[in-house]
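Quick check before the chapter quiz. The format below is the same one you will see on the exam, so make sure you can read both the input and the output lines.
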Amino acid sequence: MANALQQIIRDRLDSERWSYGDVARRGGIPRSTVHHLATADHMARMPQPATLEGLAQGLGIPLQTIRQAAAEACGIHLYAPAAESAPTPEAPDDPEVDVLIASVQRLSSEDRRHVAALVESLLNRPSGDS
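Here is the expected output.
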């Protein structure tokens, strides 16, 4: 059974009579990437933001639709931001943050405590450390 992202890709290819190469050229991403996303049995991790942007452009589909389908294919649920919480310089619209938040919710409570401790230590480290 096709996952959400595969279904979107296949539907768009069929309706527009495009090839993987057509989508790749339109989106500026490798043909092999389009093929992989359209055919992989299991997505172990979320594709990079640039890959999702290129795929959205290549398919002519809104980025949020592609991002949501990719997350679902990875077993992650992304919550849509509230309309009144528009991105600000302090809290930009960052898909990696969305994925991190959604992924943490799938961890056990003990593992969430470990992640919280790691984040706290990263936030409290001296500014010269990278």
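If your answer matched, good. The chain has a mean pLDDT of 82.
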